[in-house]
Amino acid sequence: MAILDRFSDIISANINSLIDRMEDPEKMIDQYLRNMTEDLAEVKRNTAGVIAEETRTKRAVDQNEAEVMKYNDYAKKALSAGNEDDARIFLKKKQELENVGTGLAQSYAAAHENAMKMRQMHDKLASDIETLKGRRAMIKGKMSVAKTQEKLNNVSESVGKTQGAMGSFSRMEDKADRMLDEANAMSELNQDPVDEAKSLEEKYSSEGSAAVEDELSRLKSEMGL
Length: 225
What we know:
Blueprint: H1 2-5, H2 7-12, H3 15-20, H4 25-80, H5 84-190, H6 196-222
Helix pairs in contact: 4-5
């Protein structure tokens, strides 16, 4: 039976140690689960037959032992009745049955060992499958958190770049404002200084204009105009 040939490997397998050595636990656990589930299905398919063989050989052993005891009792009864020849016949039959019983006992021992192995493999595989399922759920949860964190890191990096660009823009805007202020200040400095005397000319030039008007009126009067 192929599954029995793998008994040592299945029983000695350390699932937690195996998981810790996996390069990609999330994917490899799924594969190991499939393999173990297939093994467990094979164990279940064969266990009934192995246990049935164990039961059959045990029944044969019990029946043989009962026959041995029966002919032993007959030999005793024959001796009690004084029939040694009959006792010898019963004892010979008993010895034949005991020889057969040796082979039956060996068959039962092998069947019993196989049945024990099947039970051990069933329990070990069932336990390992539950362990894998638990670790898979935990690992997948961690992977999901890691992927979410990675997305957040990427978003934070993008936001940081945007903030950096805005900061650069603000610095450029401040620099432009400073340049404009400096230009305006320079323009004011480049204007000609105010000549106060020139400013007062208009105030007093109006008197000169009045005198001209008076002179014009006087001439027109003299000319009878």
